[in-house]
Amino acid sequence: xxxxxxxxxxxxNKAKLIRxxxxxxxxxxxxxxxxxxxxxxxxxxxxxxxxMREDFLAAAAEPGQxxxxxxxxxxxxxxxxxxx
Amino acid sequence: xSLIKELDYGTPIRVAEKQVSLTIxxxxxxxxxxxxxxxxxxxxxVKIPKLCASDNLEPFGSCRLCxxxxxxxxxxxxxxxxxxxxxxxxHTQSEKLARLRRGVIELYASDYPRDVLTSAGGAEFxxxxxxxxxxxxxxxxxxxxxxxxxxxxxxxxxxYDPAKCIVCSRCxxxxxxxxxxxxxxxxxxxxxxxxxxxPTDFINSECVSCGACVQACPTGSxxxxxxxxxxxxxxxxxxxxxxxxxxxxxxxEMRGEELVxxxxxxxxxxxxxxxxxxxxxxxxxxxHKDRMLKPMVREKITDxxxxxxxxxxxxxxxxxxxxxxxxxxxxxxxxxxxxxxxxEEVFVLQKLARAAFRNNNVDTCARVCHSPTGYGLxxxxxxxxxxxxxxxxxxxDVILLIGAxxxxxxxVFASRMKKRLRAGARLIIADPRAIDLVRTPxxxxxxxxxxxxxxxxxxxxxxxxxxxxxxxxxxxxxxxxCDLEQFDTxxxxxxxxxxxxxxxxQYTGVPARDVRAAARxxxxxxxxxxxxxxxxxxxxxxxxxxxxxANLAMATGNIxxxxxxxxxxxxxxxxxxxxxxxxxxxxxxxxxxxxxxxVRESFxxxxxxxxxxxxxxxxxxxxxxxxxxxxxxxxxQGEDIAQSDPNTQHITAGLAAMECVIIQDIFLNETAKYAxxxxxxxxxxxxxGTYTNAERRINRVRKVIAPLCGKDEWRVGVELAQxxxxxMNYNHPSEIMDEIAALTPTFAGVSYRKLDELGxxxxxxxxxxxxxxxxxxxxxxxxxxxxxxxTEYVPTRERSGPRYPLILTTGRILSQYNVGAQTRxxxxxxxxxxxxxxxxxxxxxxxxxxxxxxxxxxxxxxxTTLRARISQRMQPGVVYTTFHFPGSGANxxxxxxxxxxxxxxxxxxxAVEVRRVNALSSWQERNAEEDVAMRKVLEASPDAAE
Lengths: 84, 946
Ligand code: SF4
Ligand code: SF4
Ligand code: FES
Hints:
The structure holds two protein chains of two kinds. Chain A is mainly alpha-helical. Chain A contains four helices and no strands.
């Protein structure tokens, strides 16, 4: 479920990306675990730019994020920026 | 070119399997049963003189001009009210008939001002007089007459001169039958009878200024003021309204190069001859003094603007964008396309981003309105579009209308809907506000499910719960057409107790028994149709709601036939088209992802350039990246994100952080305050191209006057690409459409030639459907089997609490359009001079607010002030406003919460507090100062612009 955060109207980019991932997870939450994880990562890969994905992964790796398990699990499947 | 005159059969064209044959003036005629003698004669080209009949109205039989002789019948019956019968022998002309008709017209003419017999309007009356051979009027004006009746000039667009009225009731019937407003009545009897718009005058009546009565009037008693001012037009050009997603066809009636009036086109397949006040009358903005006609540049946004030549403006824009890319990387610039622009302009612009900028940073204003429609319908049905044509509503048994207010937002479609409702279709409305359709003349909703804002999904899940648990699913349809495994999972999900109306009532506030009854009604008929608008999409669960609607329709077998379907009512004229044209950052035209190699390769081949296979930035991401310092250059065409997008101060901070903002628009809009280069645009009257309306109908827009700024709008994107070193070449927008057709399977069969031949086509239009597709998913879904999606209700994070105890929701009204840039510059302001805050009497009283008070409206994002209007339309706890005026700052208050799937902003739910104040908010004061400072234009140097 969502969490309230009094300053969310102006929160910075990384926090926003984490929030967006949480919201995507809230939708797929209704599905069986593996399917949900694939769908969350699939959604991010399909709609987010490589930079947003990198920023998200960096933010998600920061300590104390307390990510919902589905978001945590989906991280593994988020595509990294292509090199070269 | 000449004036297009459409054939009038006198009475409606009937559709029936059974035919009857009769003889008219010695010729055999076969027509569907129910056809009048008048229409049967007209079908053979025999025009019987008439005055009170018109083929968009039911026959009335009052003028007695259309008399005929029928063998074996006594007297001379009126041909408009006499149905054709098998074996009938009719004579339309004889000595006796001619005499009778002359007598009728002579009487009318004797009470008709002579001096105006030659002036503007009244052509039909004069024609009728000529047809019957009226040469003299034996009666003078000595007796009682109506010649001194005072005219009613209160409506800004048309005049009513009762002196010319013959009380044929065509206006009264047009208002009832076509528009469905019932504003006019005939008062008095016999000689004293007069047409009246309520107790006083037009402007103070129920009249919504649709113009149907003016069009219907045969005598010029009701006439456009522009005709009186400019004289009768002499040629016409058929084009498409540039306002809402109904996409009405109009005849632009011209005198030389001057537009005299816009008349709805009977052959227009979206509107069939009807119009609303915006398309019919509110076109004056096109020649408003605020139009910007010269390109302008400035170094800093605090500098005054300097007019320059087109060449200088475009080369400067190209140089700036290239400089930024060199300094900050390929992804540091992007484009925003507009749903107000043509398909061709949008296609050129997304091509500019993908092929010349070499990134996919292109997004469209549809992001902030219907992007969840695309996502939701694509996930379930396999295509990002509504399923029906508008006509389909004529066959509907039950309408579920949710989050849409068609009488204000989509008026011409609303008239059609009301007609069907008057004929007996049932209506369920789900809306936090009591919209007009809840109760309007001769229409009353069976159920108004007045839910709390933000609880659409909860409500739809509980409707689905009833359908599944009470055995109302159309099993055979689901078995044949849908993915069964997904259906089973979904059915189990909605059947769970947590989704029951009784459980969900705590969130929605809608009594469970009403939900149960509404679900039974929706599922009980053969044809149930869903119509929805931005009240569905503009939520944190916008996409989920769209899926929930598709689930409901599939479960009850309501997709794939006439009278059913899931139908998004699109806000702007070309929302559908701008999405179709590939202006989302992750997909090419026809909704194909940029990562698909086969698709990308086809574009690469055609465009001779390597394309990016990763999605680009959406509008909110562009703004966020700008604030972070990574996104530096933006080209916005025909859009005003500083007014229309949520959390204004966040948007303007993003714009202010960019190094080069290029705006193309017809006005120096709010966003232009943050721009460095301004390129003038064209109004729809100055364009050739196409718009695609809410029913996927591709309509032609035709140039009526030359571009006032000296350049076609579509050329600007082309020239900018060229200046950046990418070759783009077209001679005419038709060539752009040819390229769209070559690259987009759903458009493969579209060409200007075909559009000119058929009037319009609805995509998909290709080899399988050469004339287009009115109804989609007829035998199978585009994706094969329909997909049921699980739609768990997740409450929005935006909740009322002690600091912000009320919920604000936003909407629009009939006379104004979107950010108001066009309609505010017309006489439509007479109906809506400012945005107001509607507040329930209970909430007002608690705050000591009375009607008309200035109140502050504050949220976590910002605050503004508005005038309060006490209204029972809202439920307690919910306030409502529109966003048509920039100074009211409705979007200063809305937050950047958004739909989980598409980031479409949650405009419809903002926690707010309302207080009485006596001064404008600091944002408004600053904005007013900036309005002056940031819009300054230097005196033009004599040779600056070409
Ligand atoms: S303009 Fe339209 S609403 Fe007004 S009286 Fe005429 S038909 Fe009725
Ligand atoms: S209904 Fe829409 S398209 Fe039709 S005239 Fe009105 S604004 Fe224009
Ligand atoms: S046209 Fe038939 S009675 Fe008027």
